[in-house]
Amino acid sequence: MRTQKITIDFPSDILLTLNASEKELEQNIKMSLAIRLYKLQKVTIGKASQIAGITRYEFEKLLSENEVPISNLSYDDVISDLNKLNK
Q1: Angle 44-49-50 (CA atoms, 0-180°, nearest 5)?
Q2: How far apart are CA 10 and CA 27, in angstroms?
Q3: pLDDT at residue 1 above 80?
Q4: Is 29 in contact with 6 (CB distance < 8 Å)?
Q5: Confidence of residue 18 (pLDDT cuts 50, 70, 90)
Q6: How far is 8 from 56, CA to CA, in rounded Å?
Q7: What percent of the chain has pLDDT over 90?
Q8: Is residue 63 within 8 Å of residue 81, measured between CB atoms?
Q9: pLDDT one-digit tens code per residue, 69-79
Q10: Distance between CA 30 and CA 83 in Å, rounded?
Q11: Which of 32, 34, 36, 74 would be a feasible disulfide site paired with 52, CB 3.0-4.6 Å?
C-alpha cells in the first residue's frame, strides 16, 4: 500500500500537555480521523482500518468502544434486504 505523508503543526508543548509520545499522538490522530471518516460514510470500514493502521477486527472493537455503530445500514435498508431475500 502506498502512503502519503502529511505534516500537521501543533503547539510545542502538546506532547507534555497530553503526557504522550509523538508516536502515541500520531496513532491517536490516525484512529480519530479513521473513526470520523467512517462515521461520515466517506470511507468503508476496511479503508478506515487501514487509515488507523490496525486490523479490521481491531477497528470494529475501537468503533464499539467509541459507541459508533459497526454497520451503516438503516432500518429501511435491512427491511429492503429482508424483502429481497424472502422473494
Answers
A1: 100
A2: 15
A3: no
A4: no
A5: very high
A6: 26
A7: 64
A8: no
A9: 888 777 888 88
A10: 39
A11: 34
The whole-angstrom separation of Cα 24 and Cα 32 is 12
C-alpha cell at 76: 429501511
pTM of the model: 0.79
Mean of per-residue pLDDT scores for the chain: 91
Q: Where are the alpha helices (DSSP H) in the chain?
A: 14-18, 22-39, 45-52, 56-65, 75-86
Q: How far apart are the C-alpha atoms of 9 and 1, rounded to whole Å? A: 25
Q: Is 41 left (phi over 0), alpha (psi -120 to 50) or beta?
A: left
pLDDT at position 55, please?
A: 97
C-alpha cell belonging to residue 58: 481491531
Q: Give residue limits of the domains in the chain.
A: 14-86
